[in-house]
């Protein structure tokens, strides 16, 4: 399979295939969840290693990233700055301190499509797009939302259409 990784090509395809993708979403919803998970995980293992996230960074331009207090502590250590300063500058905290998010989209730490804290990036960043996780058919809204932005999701979904003979 030939992968497409140009972000402008993928964004344009997402516009052109909007109706097709809504139909594919409905089709996937009607399939056996475990079968779809097996296919997604197989394609994730094949496709994801071929795509270089360190030269893309597109999710960092659109995701809201939740972080934990421990991650803030580690980040402060990594940046060699007081934790209070890191909280003030980079983090928005919910009223009861139960929720913390990076307070900017695109993310503060993205420079020239690269994460400047890559080794210390947050769990949510590491997990995205999460194709290894079960119950893919329960995440179709999010997957289709990111289809036009994330080359991994785009290529996995396009290959799924082929493998499932969707529209054939
Ligand atoms: S911390 Fe790094 S990987 Fe996570 S959103 Fe920011 S730039 Fe992207
Ligand atoms: S997860 Fe997707 S959008 Fe994010 S850097 Fe990797 S390929 Fe790009």
What does the model show?
The protein has 168 residues and is mainly alpha-helical. It has 2 domains: 7-51 and 129-163, no CATH class; 64-127, no CATH class. It has 8 helices and 5 strands; from the N terminus they run H-H-H-E-H-H-E-E-E-E-H-H-H. It has helices at 7-16, 18-29, 33-47, 69-79, 83-90, 123-127, 140-147, 151-163; strands at 66-67, 91-93, 100-102, 110-111, 114-115. It has a 3-stranded antiparallel beta sheet with strand order 1-3-2. The chain has a two-stranded antiparallel sheet with strand order 4-5. Strand 4 (110-111) and strand 5 form a beta hairpin. Helix 4 crosses helix 5 and helix 7 crosses helix 8. The longest helix has 15 residues, at 33-47. The radius of gyration is 18 Å and the shape is elongated.
């Amino acid at each position: 399979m030939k992968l497409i990784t140009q972000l402008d090509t993928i964004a344009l395809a997402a516009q052109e295939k909007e109706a097709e993708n809504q139909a594919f979403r409905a089709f996937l919803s009607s399939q056996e969840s475990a079968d779809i998970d097996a296919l997604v995980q197989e394609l994730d293992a094949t496709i994801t290693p071929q795509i270089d996230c360190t030269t893309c960074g597109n999710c960092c331009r659109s995701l809201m990233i939740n972080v934990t207090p421990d991650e803030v502590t580690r980040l402060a250590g990594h940046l060699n700055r007081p934790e209070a300063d890191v909280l003030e500058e980079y983090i928005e905290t919910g009223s009861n301190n139960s929720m913390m998010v990076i307070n900017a989209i695109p993310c503060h730490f993205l420079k020239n499509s690269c994460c400047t804290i890559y080794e210390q990036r947050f769990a949510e960043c590491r997990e995205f797009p999460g194709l290894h996780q079960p119950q893919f058919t329960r995440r179709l809204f999010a997957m289709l939302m990111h289809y036009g932005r994330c080359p991994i999701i785009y290529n996995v979904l396009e290959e799924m259409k082929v493998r499932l003979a969707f529209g054939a």
